[in-house]
Amino acid sequence: MTTTAPAPAVTVQKVGGRLGAVLTGVRLGGDLPAETVAEIRAALLEHKVVFFRGQDHLDEEQHEAFGRLLGTPVAHPTVPSADGRYSFPVDSDHGGRANQWHSDVTFVPAYPAFSILRAVVVPPYGGNTLWANTATAYARLPQPLRRLADELRAVHSNDYDYAALRPDALPEQLARFREVFTSTKFLTEHPVVRVHPETGERVLLLGNFVQRIKGLTAPDSRALFQLFQSHIERPENTVRWQWQAGDVAIWDNRATQHYGVDDSDDHERKLRRVTIDGDVPVGVDGRTSLLLSPESVPDPAFGVASGASSTSDTSGVPAAEAATA
Ligand SMILES: [Fe+2]
């Protein structure tokens, strides 16, 4: 009788009541068996953010290779990569330490489905990351507020007021931010409530790239944004992770927001992120998101830009990386 060694069992342990789980028994890389990838994906969809300790063996190439098992890696639309082709620097010295609650890259229509963040250098204290569950934030709203949210659309932009958020930022930091992050100014209209393409859950689609709620005055827009956003950020709706070098966190960027806490003073903090292509959001009424400007997402220095997908493919399987040339 011949037997093949079974893939090691993945264990899942919840770390927050509303989201977050630690997965053990996995050595991440590009050569994981399909059944293990399926288990990771299922845990990711259920728990929204999953954590792995002790993945120090990963380098830029293996990080990206693992990412390809979840979908198509995509480049940031404006910020150049770090050492690897699709590896994005999330560093203490990159663009200052500004942070706000957000989902990644929501200023383009098909913003990333997943982000995979790997800790390379962690500070001796602080520098934690928080995630919030945007599905439970919606589900627990009183019904009149859910009905209101269902009908709203919001305009997201990467050209937000960085200076207002960072009153202590140095002039050269502001100049660098404007030069790099907003080298192309994007405006995208999204539904405030998105139907998740894989789980069918309704999620709130907000965060710090929101410029205004469509059709409202600026004061009404701010008040309404704050009302819904405050339900996302409630401590009970979040999980907090204290990084160790070699940790990997993967989150469903369509069902979460996150926040990197800036409390490690001048200590170095260096993480690398690979993002996986998403699809165009669809609202409760079936209307999709719209890129308002520019006319299309420009090509990055290489590969496919995040958000460049133009179809609302709901299969959860990203299109082939056809435009890599
Ligand atoms: Fe982020």
TrEMBL record:
One of its GO terms (molecular function) is dioxygenase activity. Residues 292-325 are annotated as: Disordered. The keyword Iron applies. Its cofactor is Fe(2+). InterPro entries: AtsK-like, TauD-like_sf, TauD/TfdA-like. Gene3D superfamilies: Clavaminate synthase-like (3.60.130.10). Residues 304-317 have a biased composition (Low complexity). Residues 19-275 form the TauD/TfdA-like domain. Keywords: Dioxygenase, Iron, Metal-binding, Oxidoreductase. Belongs to the TfdA dioxygenase family. This is TauD/TfdA family dioxygenase. It comes from Streptomyces achromogenes.
